[in-house]
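Hi V.,

You were right to ask for the full record rather than a summary. Here it is.
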Amino acid sequence: MKRVYFIFILLFFSTFSFAQERIFSLQECIDTAIKNSIEVRQSVLLTKTSAINHNQSKANLLPDLNGIVSHGINRGRSIDPFTNSFVNQKISYANYGIGSGLVLFNGFSFRNTIRQAALAYDASRLELQQEKDELTLSVILAYLQVLNNEDLLEVARQQVDVSKLQLERIEKLNKQGAIDPPQLHEIIGQLKDNELGVIDNSNALELSKLNLARLMNISYSAKIKLERTGIQEIPDPPSEESGVLYSKAIGHLAGIKAAGLRTRSNEFAISASRGRLFPTLSFHSNLNTNFSSIATRDLLLGTTEITTSNYVIINGTQVPVIAKQNNYISSKINYGSQLNNNIFSNLALTLRIPLFNSFQARNQVRLAEVQHESARLLEESVQIQLRQQIEEAHLLLLNAYKRYLVLNEQVHAFKEAFRAAEIRFNAGVGTSIDYILAKNNYDRSNVNLVIARYDFLLRRQVINYFTGQVN
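Predicted structure:
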């Protein structure tokens, strides 16, 4: 049992370690973030709500059908439901009915409501897509930030390696008395400065991993690794002007389309509200029956002859009149017979004319007009913000590309300067100050180039998002 328990624990931690050390691709990060996002789930629920409202608006055109079942007991003076006469006794009664109604005309309010709900449903679906697109962009930017910090950390480690090699050489020369002692301490200080850079960049890398994990809604782990395939290439900047990019964004972005649909939906809401100012024509039909516990009927037992008080005179003598009399017995009517015998139905057309309803209908129209104007202004505001964002993003992208080109040339220049300073320093011609200054310039230009490259990639992804090329 101990061996089995040990194997189980080993397999558990191996599986856990494997899960923690898995390498995420960009698409996996995006899919995980969308799957785990609470905001996306809420948008899904809102879309489902809009779908239900749309279906209900169409179902409102159908006739209703309702059944009625009523059982009760009357005590004291009440109306017998069987004879509709007053009685003063206990009565058990039951009523059964089924009724249906259909609105034939209500100022086209139902049909406009259907159009309103359909557009609202389409808008909610686009808003769900907008939520996913925005999350996708955030994940891509966070993903690139992690790669950026990994490259900065690698540059910092390379700087440490170069400083260590130089320190080993200087220590040997110092033991031989071939250099001034201050040069050794200057190189040691330079190494510690590079080691601090490694610590700072390691911290920045883990913070960027934490940010990515938050977007994906998973637990943070320092062992998270990211694929680097196809993410570091520097594409050419967009050749289109910001106006062309804006035109593409207008036709692509789900949020812009959703705002337009909301405006159109509110237009039909106004028409639906105005329909309540018109008369409503409806059709109703009912089928009912009832039961009374005191309902009775007379049954014929037979016929007998009785002497009446009337008489006839025959030969001067009064002869009484003999008449036949039917004899009856009262019997309660059973439950089923009453239900069958008491069935009645009715059909009716009803025209309801709204003469005065405390101005509710007119105020509903005014409220719908206000909501429509609010939706129109929101649509206009969204378009203005989009245009401004694209103009800013386009300008920053062009500047980032120019900065990357200049820094790339600067790296090559400082690399040659550092190589020359290192040769002179190793030959004992140059000073440690010249060497450290050249190295710092080269290191700083490398860091700036890495930052500029990812700055361009980030801004390029923003433009891709606006033009529908986020993947």
